[in-house]
């Protein structure tokens, strides 16, 4: 173990801890304190009220749809960017990040205009009898848009770094493309893929700006948890806002812990890093 | 397989997924879905913003509340981005150049805002600085207003962007190690001089990249700011909030005009990122 020879450690660490402490930890701790203050009985009553449960169910369902879509599409996207050369590839590579660079309110406004009954996409879809705006499908589309880059950007570098020799060895032993994809490539990219899906899911669960434009926000039907929190605040019902926010925060942490645990388990089992 | 040795391995072994019947359609599918899903929203913003001509567009943007929202958004970015750069450098210096107990915990902590809903962040701030928050009564007694005012917008923006610069710098500083800095120090350079002349040039592109992303997020943040700002028209309304306000007022044309400014910032962010990456690649040879 080498001695620390560089200066500035205490200053840098002090600044970091102070910043994270006041900007990130203090508010989250205050939120948890407020939620704990409510008392377990009232807390449970708030969370299990029909409107809360409906919002939780809508949010979970639509976030799952959005994440499932991005798992498939993001994986294909990452593969295409990492493995093929074609004209316009650099543009495609840049376009991936637009959902992160575009403010969520702008995305929500644009998606609502596109899928409105007289919109570019909404009009043809309406002829098929499919309505997107003010339905859970619209919520899922908004979530899928804002969380699109996560799977692509976590999986793409891993596919680029995959050693070709293992694939070539498998190929020379007569393995088919599907076999190699399933038994060689997928296990190697799985931890990154899972991390990407988990980030996309977390983002979808908490998405607000993009969703509220397209959702219609009908209580019990198309009201997401983040909006319900916001409405409780506007009603000055602070205990309810605290309780619902605390549940969202705990869900986000549980997701992080679960992702790390599955990754660790996978690394142990498959022996890949 | 008998004539395998006579062929070069590259020719004999087609890469996985390299069959034309798979490759072509897969590329086409990804391009089409992306054009619809990402190109569609971008196109509709500009098409709607300019649907009644440039003059009408200009008039919508010249609305005093929208102009004030643009000013406020730029002001927030001017305050928050430099602070985030300073924090990012400090965090990356501590975590990337040193090993200490609790290091991985600190890295995990930096990432927390990525997973927290902006609405939750806003609510959390309310319970610190709001009237019913931890410091609320104290601040009120002292006559300091943080909630539903500019300081709350700064703080909420600092929360949501905390990881942006640090995340770009940490892996880079870690990979670069401490050899160059140690050489400079052993030659008698001061710590600050070493940082400015040795470390900073090594990380400048990642720093710029992180700052660009941070700027885009600050200017576009909606959820957290809409909880803490109080949405006071012409006072604490940032541009994304103004977009929603105009839309709620059934001023759809005005909403699209304001949205187009934000969309332009987003597109500029992507282009700037591409330029930075290209320069970086060239610099690395």
From TrEMBL, chain A:
Pfam families: BPD_transp_1
GO-annotated cellular components: plasma membrane
Keywords: Membrane, Sulfate transport, Transmembrane, Transmembrane helix, Transport
Family the UniProt entry places it in: Belongs to the binding-protein-dependent transport system permease family. CysTW subfamily.
Membrane-crossing segments per the record: 12-33, 53-82, 94-116, 128-152, 184-202, 238-259
Name of this chain's protein: Sulfate transport system permease protein CysT
An example Gene Ontology molecular-function term: ABC-type sulfate transporter activity
Record has ATP-binding as a keyword: no
InterPro entries in UniProt: CysT_permease, MetI-like, MetI-like_sf, Sulph_transpt2
Subunit structure: The complex is composed of two ATP-binding proteins (CysA), two transmembrane proteins (CysT and CysW) and a solute-binding protein (CysP).
Keyword Endoplasmic reticulum among record annotations: no
Membrane topology, from the record: Multi-pass membrane protein
Domain ABC transmembrane type-1: start-end pairs: 56-259
Highest taxon, organism lineage: Bacteria
Summary of the function given for this chain in its UniProt record: Part of the ABC transporter complex CysAWTP (TC 3.A.1.6.1) involved in sulfate/thiosulfate import. Probably responsible for the translocation of the substrate across the membrane.
Automatic annotation (TrEMBL), chain B:
Pfam families membership: BPD_transp_1
Transmembrane segments: 26-57, 69-95, 115-135, 147-166, 250-272
Keywords attached to this entry: Membrane, Sulfate transport, Transmembrane, Transmembrane helix, Transport
Primary site of residence: membrane
Domain named ABC transmembrane type-1: residues: 70-277
GO molecular function annotations of the record: ABC-type sulfate transporter activity
Keyword Zinc-finger in record: no
Zinc in keyword set: no
Entry's Gene Ontology cellular component terms: plasma membrane
Subcellular location: Cell membrane
Membrane topology: Multi-pass membrane protein
Subunit annotation: The complex is composed of two ATP-binding proteins (CysA), two transmembrane proteins (CysT and CysW) and a solute-binding protein (CysP).
NCBIfam families given in the database record: 3a0106s02, permease_CysW
Functional description taken from the UniProt entry: Part of the ABC transporter complex CysAWTP (TC 3.A.1.6.1) involved in sulfate/thiosulfate import. Probably responsible for the translocation of the substrate across the membrane.
Name of the protein: Sulfate ABC transporter permease subunit CysW
């Amino acid at each position: 173990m080498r001695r620390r020879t560089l200066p500035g450690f205490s200053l840098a660490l002090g600044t970091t801890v102070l910043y994270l402490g006041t900007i990130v930890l203090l508010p989250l701790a205050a939120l948890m304190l407020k939620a704990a203050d409510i008392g377990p009985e009232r807390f449970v009553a708030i969370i299990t009220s029909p409107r809360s449960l409906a919002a939780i169910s809508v949010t979970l369902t639509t976030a799952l749809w959005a994440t499932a879509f991005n798992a498939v599409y993001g994986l294909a996207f990452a593969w295409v960017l990492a493995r093929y050369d074609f004209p316009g590839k650099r543009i495609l590579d840049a376009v991936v990040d637009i959902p992160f660079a575009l403010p969520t309110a702008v995305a929500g406004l644009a998606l609502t205009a596109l899928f409105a009954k007289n919109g570019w996409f909404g009009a043809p879809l309406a002829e098929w009898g499919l309505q997107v705006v003010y339905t859970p499908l619209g919520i899922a589309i908004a979530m899928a848009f804002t969380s699109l880059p996560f799977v692509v950007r976590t999986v793409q570098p891993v596919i680029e770094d995959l050693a070709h020799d293992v694939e070539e060895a498998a190929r020379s032993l007569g393995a088919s493309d599907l076999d190699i994809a399933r038994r060689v490539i997928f296990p190697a990219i799985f931890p990154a893929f899972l991390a990407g899906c988990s980030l996309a899911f977390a983002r979808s669960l908490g998405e607000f700006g993009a969703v509220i434009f397209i959702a219609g926000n009908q209580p019990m039907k198309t009201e997401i948890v983040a909006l319900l929190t916001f409405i409780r605040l506007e009603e000055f019902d602070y205990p309810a806002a605290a309780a619902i926010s605390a549940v969202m925060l705990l869900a986000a942490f549980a997701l992080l812990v679960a992702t790390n645990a599955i990754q660790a388990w996978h690394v142990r089992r498959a022996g890949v890093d | 397989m008998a004539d395998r040795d006579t062929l070069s391995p590259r020719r004999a072994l087609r890469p996985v997924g390299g069959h034309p019947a798979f490759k072509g359609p897969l590329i086409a599918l990804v391009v089409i879905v992306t054009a619809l899903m990402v190109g569609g929203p971008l196109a509709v913003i500009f098409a709607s913003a300019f649907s009644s001509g440039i003059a009408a567009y200009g008039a919508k943007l010249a609305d005093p509340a929208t102009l004030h929202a643009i000013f406020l958004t730029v002001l927030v970015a001017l305050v928050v981005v430099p602070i985030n750069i300073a924090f990012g450098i400090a965090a990356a210096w501590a975590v990337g150049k040193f090993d200490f107990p609790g290091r991985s915990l600190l890295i995990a902590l930096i990432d927390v805002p990525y997973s927290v809903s902006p609405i939750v962040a806003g609510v959390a701030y309310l319970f610190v600085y709001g009237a019913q928050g931890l410091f609320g009564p104290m601040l009120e007694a002292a006559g300091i207003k943080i909630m539903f005012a500019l300081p709350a917008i700064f703080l909420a923006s600092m929360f949501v962007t905390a990881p942006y610069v640090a995340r770009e710098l940490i892996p880079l500083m870690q990979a670069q190690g401490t050899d160059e800095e140690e050489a400079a120090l052993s030659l008698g350079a001061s710590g600050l001089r070493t940082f400015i002349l040795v470390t900073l040039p090594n990380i400048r592109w990642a720093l710029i990249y992180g700052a660009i992303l941070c700027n885009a997020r600050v200017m576009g943040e909606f959820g957290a700011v809409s909880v803490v700002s109080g949405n006071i028209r012409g006072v604490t309304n940032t541009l994304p909030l103004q977009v929603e306000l105009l839309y709620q007022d059934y001023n759809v044309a005005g909403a699209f005009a304001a949205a187009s400014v934000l969309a332009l910032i987003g597109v500029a962010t992507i282009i700037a990122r591409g330029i930075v990456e290209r320069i970086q690649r060239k610099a690395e040879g």
